[in-house]
Amino acid sequence: MEKEKSEWREWTKALGIALILVIVIRYFLFAPIVVDGLSMTPTLHNGDRMIVSKFGTPDRFDIVVFHAPERKDYIKRVIGLPGDKIEYKDDTLYINGKAYEEPYLKDSKVALQEGLLTDDFTLDEIIDQETVPDGEIFVMGDNRRYSKDSRHIGTVPLEEVVGITSVVVWPIKDMGMVK
């Protein structure tokens, strides 16, 4: 009888530890997310399942998940960091006056039949400030013509960022790291 109680206690302890680990991992380290929409096409597709890392600070060109004003989570690419001056001119990204290539847009630009993939703008025209404010980031979707991003909702406070994502886990054909 004592052996059964001891075994039961061990199983309860093991399950309790496992439950605590799941909660810690899920709420503090990693979380699953499902891509909803086409704003990150062709990099990500509607229905892709990804893992979001909740630690680390977003860097330029990272893909992040954040709480949007519409009480919904968005997934976009970080274009501008605090203090950056952002401008698009003739379909070229300029950060602090320096032109940057965006290799993740290459296929979209090639497939473009007419016009620009990204319309010209300056940060000042969007948020009435010359630089990205401290503690905020400027984000854009890779599907530039059909993305609701910082051009529409403004800069994103870092405290609204859920985490950084770069791993697609489903569907199997798309499984792997994204850039």
UniProtKB/TrEMBL annotation:
Keywords assigned: Cell membrane, Hydrolase, Membrane, Protease, Transmembrane, Transmembrane helix
EC number: 3.4.21.89
Active site: S39, K76
UniProt-listed Pfam families: Peptidase_S26
Regions that span the bilayer: 12-35
Cross-referenced PROSITE patterns: SPASE_I_1 (PS00501), SPASE_I_2 (PS00760), SPASE_I_3 (PS00761)
Catalytic activity: Cleavage of hydrophobic, N-terminal signal or leader sequences from secreted and periplasmic proteins
Gene Ontology biological process terms from the UniProt entry: signal peptide processing
Gene Ontology MF annotations: serine-type endopeptidase activity; signal peptidase activity
CDD domains xrefs: S26_SPase_I
Subcellular location as annotated: Cell membrane; Membrane
Keyword Nucleotide-binding: no
Topological relation to the membrane, as annotated: Single-pass type II membrane protein
Phosphoprotein keyword on record: no
GO cellular component, one term: plasma membrane
Protein family (similarity comment): Belongs to the peptidase S26 family.
PANTHER family the UniProt entry points to: SIGNAL PEPTIDASE I
Protein name: Signal peptidase I
The species this protein was found in: Rossellomorea marisflavi
Native organism taxonomy: Bacteria, Bacillati, Bacillota, Bacilli, Bacillales
